[in-house]
Amino acid sequence: MNNSTEDPDSATPAPTPGSRRPGGRTARTRAAVRDAVLTGLAEHGYPSLTVEYLAEHSGVHKTTLYRRWGSVEGMVADALDLAGEDEWTPPDTGSLAGDLRALAREVVEGFRDPADAAAPTAFVGAAFQSARAADALRSFYGERFSRCEAVVARAVDRGEAPLGTDAGAVARAVSAPLFLRLFVTREPVDERLADQAADATLAAVTAGVFTEPTGRSRTAGNLPAPTPREG
Amino acid sequence: MNNSTEDPDSATPAPTPGSRRPGGRTARTRAAVRDAVLTGLAEHGYPSLTVEYLAEHSGVHKTTLYRRWGSVEGMVADALDLAGEDEWTPPDTGSLAGDLRALAREVVEGFRDPADAAAPTAFVGAAFQSARAADALRSFYGERFSRCEAVVARAVDRGEAPLGTDAGAVARAVSAPLFLRLFVTREPVDERLADQAADATLAAVTAGVFTEPTGRSRTAGNLPAPTPREG
């Protein structure tokens, strides 16, 4: 997160019009503001985040912050955009069962240490107050989940998943029971729950639940259900 | 929500020590404060909620609010406790497949109208700022999900679910992909996604994923997976 030697310019297209110039200074400024946003969110939460705080902690002048990002909202959204510009790729364990368990365990692992959990949790919380943060969060997760297409493509190749399985739905399904507990019901998560989320997703994939409809309507006919609704 | 003729005293045990007295006046005061909290959360969100706002909108004097609830946090938590004191029971359609789809569609239906969605969404958002709101939310959902034990018990009786299926895990599984999109990834939900969440949960139930461990360790041996991890 705080790797100051990274150079987002090299890997990614410009995310915000006007926010990027040739050379590394803009990238360094952007990273400094991002770090200040993460620290501020983690320590105080979105409602307490001010331009004054971000100027002090980033070492970037308030005037520059206002000119480049417009508002705290803009800085939070850009920090999230920057967080999405990493090199993360989904696990490749050799089986869909293994990949799903590894994905779910990454979620649990990422939230085990409260210090690691604070900033991502605050991003999710910020979206309740800021439409721009909500947009940035949607983009972040959309892009992150789309990287899981590789997992499903390999599974289809190996015959573990039906052709046409919706990778985005699979990626959301394996994360959802963990995110539900972390962000909504406020319950603890652990490896057992990670494995359960993975195994549930695998069962649904195998049953064809995530197969995109191709001309036919999606009905219970896909399912291994022993009893139809009106039966 | 604003049914002023309701009498929570008749149906439920006292949720907060000292907050309930014989007769209806306390119940009416509590309901008035609850309504003000819901309106305030829906219109302004948790960070903007003040005792002044709640006094004005409930018609209850600030001194009384402070004495009885201590703080805005206390009023939010109590409003959530009161929301949990309803008569909701899970659907009973005659099959597990039908009950799960009905449960998932209730979630989608409950968030279709932004006016209906605002207060519950703000409760979830408040938990990012308030530990008391987070505790109240955990209790609310824990109790709500526990009512779904009837769904799973009927399914076990009908032979649709294995004996020992964890009803709490099933209830969370069917809600999770929808709550993920509503509260985390900020994506739209619809009937198709509700049915997909229900069908995925049904497939996992059928595969025994939610069977509580009874002496044996939980392994991929429960699953219909074609390829074991190291295979």
Overall 3D shape of chain A? elongated
Overall pLDDT confidence of chain A: 85
What share of the residues of chain A lie within helices? 55-70%
Alpha plus pi helix count of chain A: 11
Low-confidence stretches of chain A: 1-22, 215-231
Commentary on this structure:
Two copies of one chain form a homodimer. Chain A has 231 residues and is mainly α. The first copy, chain A, contains eleven helices and no strands. Chain A has helices at residues 8-11, 25-44, 51-58, 62-69, 72-83, 96-110, 114-126, 131-146, 149-157, 167-184, 191-206. In chain A, α2 (25-44) packs across α3 (51-58), α6 (96-110) runs parallel beside α10 and α9 crosses α10 (167-184). The N and C termini of chain A lie far apart (55 Å). Mean pLDDT of chain A is 85; it is low at 1-22 and 215-231. At the A-B interface, α6, α7, α8, α10 and α11 of A face α6, α7, α8, α10 and α11 of B.
Summarize the model shown.
Chain A contains 11 helices and no strands. The first copy, chain A, has 231 residues and is an all-alpha fold.
Q: What does the secondary structure layout of this molecule look like, with pairings?
A:
2 copies of one chain form a homodimer.
Chain A: H1 8-11, H2 25-44, H3 51-58, H4 62-69, H5 72-83, H6 96-110, H7 114-126, H8 131-146, H9 149-157, H10 167-184, H11 191-206
Helix pairs in contact in A: 2-3, 2-5, 2-7, 5-8, 6-10, 6-11, 9-10, 10-11
